[in-house]
Amino acid sequence: MALVDRTLLGPGPSNPYPEATAALAAPLLGHLDPEFLRVLDETCTRLRVVWGTANARTLPLSGTGSIGMEAAFANFVHPGDVVVVGVNGMFGERMVEVAGRYGADVVRVDHDWGTPVDTERVLAAHPEPSLVAAVHAETSTGVRSDIRELSLAVHKRDERGLVLADCVTSLAGIEVAVDGWGVDIAYSGTQKCLGVAPGLAPFTVSPRAWDRRVQRPPTWYLDLNLIGAYVDGSGGGRTYHHTAPVAMIASLHAALGRVMEEGLEQVWERHRAAGAQLHDGLRELGLELFAAEGHRLPELTTVRVPEGVDSAKVRQVLLTEYGIEIGAGVGAFASSVWRIGLMGHNARPDRVELVLAALRRAMA
Ligand code: PLP
């Protein structure tokens, strides 16, 4: 789905994150090598910066973004807990499914796709849920929901309720402030705005949520008690749990180094500017944006396929003639919406111009 030059992480003039690529190919260190453990510690420190948190339990989980979702529900849902999920797209639906599998009594609050999660409706769904969950950046629709407002409202009403945010497509692309917003549990993925290969799920947990964790979750691999003992030695001394994906972590470490160097706020601004440029350009092409105004993601733009245009054919021309991959819509919008990702190293003016020019020609 990302806009690529068919070399997502490959070398070449269009890839400004060469360190992340180089790290994947570098000679491997053992996962208990002191130098690797230093890289791991620094990766966690850098993750705290991008999450906007002082949470001690901030780490990269081994697996794609979905592993973050699984770990969240597995470690913080006790059987029968009421979990309210704001659903406004495919990934909210996935949260409902995963929460249910871990024994939650799920209350889903459905919204029209293309609109954001509504705080009042979510609050009204249940007076005292154990957990309230929503997707910050819904990749299936290109919508940003106001997690700050939702989280502050949940905590204002009930000191015990926890807030879980899916930040797979928002982390290091738009503002995420875990501590400032009072988010208790959040996960992301590496392949979106962080611009690294898929394979890790940055994860963070507040001390409040940690105190209420499931002591023996129904998964061994994703038991945060056991993983923490390896990652930060919590519980006394670093002990082996599973073999850390050392190359992936080194690659994430390098990409986070890039973000630190550029400055997190500058990175957000680069995404904002690229998104605004793309949205303006699409409107100039006579296209209609799909996501509700005021809630459009800069890094993932959804646009309606014009009447009479063959969605699949345009995507095929973009791919084969221009080396640009854009996504089809999801679910009911599969053939009526396109999704254009400009994130990480692709959130740049020249990439926007390229996709606009190619789209104009492909539609013609
Ligand atoms: N949540 C959101 C918002 C996503 O966009 C995705 C993937 O695109 C996921 C969760 C699942 O992540 P993954 O596909 O890396 O497992």
| Cofactors, ions, other ligands | pyridoxal-5'-phosphate
What value does the Rg take, in angstroms?
A: 20 Å
Topology pattern, helix = H, strand = E: HHEHEHEHEEEHEHEEHHHHEHEEH
What structural class results from the helix and strand content? alpha/beta
Q: What does this 3D model show about the protein?
A:
The strands form three sheets. Strands 1-9-8-7-4-2-3 form a seven-stranded mixed beta sheet, with helices on both faces. A three-stranded antiparallel beta sheet has the order 10-12-11, with helices on one face. It has two domains: 7-13 and 263-363, Aspartate Aminotransferase, domain 1 (Alpha-Beta Complex); 18-261, Aspartate Aminotransferase, domain 2, CATH 3.40.640. It is of the alpha/beta class and 364 residues long. The chain has 13 helices and twelve strands. 41% of the residues lie in helices and 15% in strands. Helix 1 (18-25) runs antiparallel to helix 10, helix 2 crosses helix 10 (246-262) and helix 10 (246-262) crosses helix 11 (264-284). Bound molecules: pyridoxal-5'-phosphate (PLP).
List the topology elements.
Blueprint lengths: L17 H8 L8 H18 L5 E6 L2 H12 L5 E6 L2 H12 L3 E6 L8 H7 L5 E5 L1 E2 L4 E2 L2 H11 L4 E5 L11 H4 L3 E3 L12 E6 L1 H5 L12 H8 L14 H17 L1 H21 L15 E5 L6 H12 L4 E2 L8 E5 L7 H15 L1
Helix pairs in contact: 1-10, 2-10, 5-6, 10-11, 11-13, 12-13
Report a brief summary of the structure.
This protein has 364 residues and is of the alpha/beta class. The protein has 13 helices and twelve strands.
